[in-house]
Amino acid sequence: MTVKQISVFLENRAGRLWELCDVLGKNGINMRALSIGEAADFGIVRMIVNEPDKANTILKGAGFTVAETDVLAVEIPDVPGGLAKVLGALKDKGVNIEYAYAFVARSGDKAIVSMRVDTQADAETVLEVAGFKVLSADDVYNL
Amino acid sequence: MFWDEKNEAMSRDEMQVLQLSRLQATLDRAYSKIPFYKKKFDDAGVKPAEIKTLNDLKSVPFTTKNDLRDNYPFGMFAEPLDDIVRVHASSGTTGQVTVVGYTATDIDTWAELVTRCIVLSGGTKKDIIQVAYGYGLFTGGLGLHYGGEKLGAMVIPMSGGNTKRQIQVMKDFGSTILCCTPSYALYMGEVAAEMGIDFKQLNLKAGIFGAEPWSESMRQEIEAKLNLKAYDIYGLSEVIGPGVANECEVQQGLHVFEDHFIPEVIDPDSGEVLGPGEQGELVITTITKEATPVIRYRTKDVTSLNFEPCACGRTHARMQRVFGRSDDMLIIRGVNVFPSQIEEILMSVEGTEPHYQIIVDRQKALDEVEIQVEVAADIFSDEIKRLAQLSGLIEQEIREDLGIGAKVTLVEPKTIQRSEGKAKRLVDKRDLAG
Description:
- The complex is a heterodimer of chains A (143) and B (434).
- Helix content of chain A is 33%, strand content 38%.
- The model of chain A has no long low-confidence stretch (mean pLDDT 88).
- By secondary structure, chain A is of the alpha+beta class.
- Chain A starts with a strand and ends with a helix.
- Chain A has two domains: 3-68, VC0802-like; 70-141, VC0802-like, CATH 3.30.2130.10.
- In chain A, strands 1, 2, 3, 4, 5, 6 and 7 form a seven-stranded antiparallel β-sheet that branches.
- With 434 residues, chain B is α/β, with parallel strands linked by helices.
- Chain B folds into two domains: 5-327, ANL, N-terminal domain (Rossmann fold, 3-Layer(aba) Sandwich); 335-428, GMP Synthetase, Chain A, domain 3 (2-Layer Sandwich).
- In chain B, the strands form six sheets. A nine-stranded mixed β-sheet of chain B has the order 4-3-5-6-7-8-9-14-13. In chain B, strands 10-11-12-15 form a four-stranded antiparallel β-sheet. In chain B, strands 20-19-18-23 form a four-stranded mixed β-sheet.
- The model of chain B has no long low-confidence stretch (mean pLDDT 91).
- Chains A and B meet through strand 1, strand 3 and strand 4 of A and helix 11 and strand 20 of B.
């Protein structure tokens, strides 16, 4: 169960992130999660949105460089040490995390974390065996 | 002060007689000994015997850098390899070098010409000459070296780099003349300041700077910082190396040694010869070189010629400081770079045709190169480390292939300025004209 993440290359200059969000907002795309990774001259915005394919088309049409990547969305107990438990399960099985970020939305009393790992299928099994809920794409887009 | 007053100050009439006889001999030799020239002349319907005046030279076809490259390595030699005592080489558009050869006589001629350059720059046998041009296939180092020795001066063969040691030697040995690229001279000024060495305490009196374009304002900056008089030297390996032309103390243009080279300025598009004072591409014919004579060689350097007598007493024509290039070649810290070479590297790294822009600037005296590359969808990765690896790999390839350091910046698609659909490949922010 993977969730489509939309990644966008942005130059590091004032107003550029606004332009990205503005075009999505005007086209009725709702964000579920957002993270920004930055290097010296550029940043990569990663996000989970309600309609990833539509967002991809819109952004490409607006001249952005866009990529789609599969990520895992995992429900975690919203208590101290909640994320640590998830990560512990992955660590024990040698799954490496490339990056991770939290959702804006919540699922009941649970928080949600989006993560990109090196071995996606393994990680999903590991997490489920360890008792965590890996959310489906529909779960996430319709939060 | 002359090194060779008879030849440097001969009347224009005498000069033209000398040039014509040497030109005719050169054309005969090139035609009979170099198949490339025979074919070129035959194709153009030109016979060396038909060149009866200097004015007839304009009917002779041009020679280009591509011609030299096509005849790599030794196809342009007019003498058997047995009689060649030295080769030098320079880089070309595709990384393929062009090779020039020297007979023992050529080496002696070259040394003689560089000696003139040093004397024009105020040098005498009492001087201590620090040669900080690179030694090797590049003509700069050995060219100045032999000229300095022929003059009877003391030569310090430092070659380029190792800047702190250069300055230490300059101080300890009491160097009086510094030879290097102008940008390196300015860089030395900065390093010396960091070392706490004041040029007023040193013995430098003159600098012989060339191998890259520089401006009048840069001359003033060098003279102020290094406390010396800065002279412009001109040459290119295809012709002989440094020693084609040099400024005298009047510093209103560089005297082209017309007893060895015939300079012309042409319209780079039509090939038509332009008159005195008109700006165009410099074309040079060697008239004394044995091993690799070049006939109407297109230098791609843009300048103009002044045939008025000079206050220094020399009659040799003066070329204006080189204004720029008639092609897109860049000279970065003395290294010749064509945008096409950078494009090839980008293509080999990315696997597709990139949109890029090369921005050259001169920060803190040294040329800085930034290459902006648009991130197209097929090279985009959502992992920062992959993108960082990509730009790092491009920087590494450029350093290894071209020998220059460049900073690669990834930018968004369509952000590089395009004119008529074509991206502007080069932005040169260096003030080379001022």
